[in-house]
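Crash report, auto-generated. Payload:
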Amino acid sequence: MTEEKTPAEEPKRDASVQKREEFEKRTVFTEMFNLFSLVGFLYGALDERLSVQEGMQRQFGKPVWFYRTRLENNLLACLGGISFLFYLFQVVTGVLLLMHYRPTTAEAYRSVVDITNHVPYGWLVRGIHRWGANLMIVTVLLHMMRVFFTAAYRSPREVTWVNGVLLLVFTLAFGFSGVLLPWHQLSYWATSAGTDTLSAIPVVGEGIKYFVRGGATIGQLALTRFFAFHVVILPGLMLMFLVLHFLMIRRQGISEPL
Amino acid sequence: MAQYEDIEAYRKYGSEPFFPHHVLRQAIQFLAVFALLVLLASLAPGPMLPKADPFDAPANVKPDWYFLSAYQFLRLTEKLSFLGQWVPRVLGVLVQGLGAMAVWFLPFWDRNPERHPSKRPLAIRVGIGITFFLLAMTLWGHFS
Ligand code: HEM
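Recovered output after restart:
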């Protein structure tokens, strides 16, 4: 016998639906997007074809997990986000440094001295870039440790981990390629020694070393290559993998507390 | 609007809207990090060493701290060079390369379903062991 819902059931279901809708409405984004489309700023034919607005609303409307249950879960789960903040700081200060840096063996050192001593607030931008680079490596390593010790890398989060190790490699590669750019004694000799260890890799080592250095020794070609790698290739490459990392986390939510 | 398959988990553990709650949280973190960076950069701005000179190798060149442990490990394997010229580099590179691979593919071979630290004592011990090993190598590299 097909029965209609009894009046007693109806309000109960309505209440939970209503509660959820209320929760979703708490995001002010709906209003902001309505305002934008009213002004015709971003939306029009493009939005009609691609449903940008719907996609964005869905993304911004989806709540973020966090655990009220335990304080340490909360604090430790900040480390990944702080690593990302450092990435953003590095991009912004890096672009500012780029406005004055000159990537030639004759001029690089001079330009960094200029940045430090003459460009207004250049010392601050350079200082933040240096400190940010080191602190980012610290937070990425700590983030990795928290993921390991809470076993958050288990299925279904294997991809996030494998992708995360790549992010660590990129972070270290940033440090390695950045050291050469000021072209001072330490940058030259540390990079010489560092690229030298590449030849320890069996079979292909010598070839890689030659390719990285752009010749038998560190010179203009090496500086050009390190520069291109540090300011163009790596930031873009890393951004792609960061987006993948975040999409995975956003889709799956953070792992349940222990 | 989005359908949340995991609404039950949200209820159980708590959640917050992305905007403005989560964004606000992030903004606070942003300001704190910014303040820290400005403070550190003001107290200890970047030093400027002498310009690079390809004909004047300084006595004691070491890599940055984050490569020190790997570097020190390579130097350690050099002590085994009496076994043959190829031993130190190949051993140093092989051990570290395999170690890195093991970490990279960790989720695929660590199949223990337990997550709580007290139920995976071996993994925790190995993790702490590796951490201290790397720390010790870094310090050794720094002070040698
Ligand atoms: C630039 C580097 C990285 C950034 C910006 C980053 C960012 C994040 C963020 C924001 C989260 C959300 C939860 C949290 O913060 O703990 C997260 C989770 C995660 N990260 Fe990373 N991460 C980075 C590197 C790594 C590395 C090196 C690994 C591991 C080798 C890793 C593995 C993971 C895993 C498995 C999760 C999921 C944890 C869970 O669901 O509880 N990430 N990451």
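Post-recovery validation: The mean pLDDT of chain B is 85.
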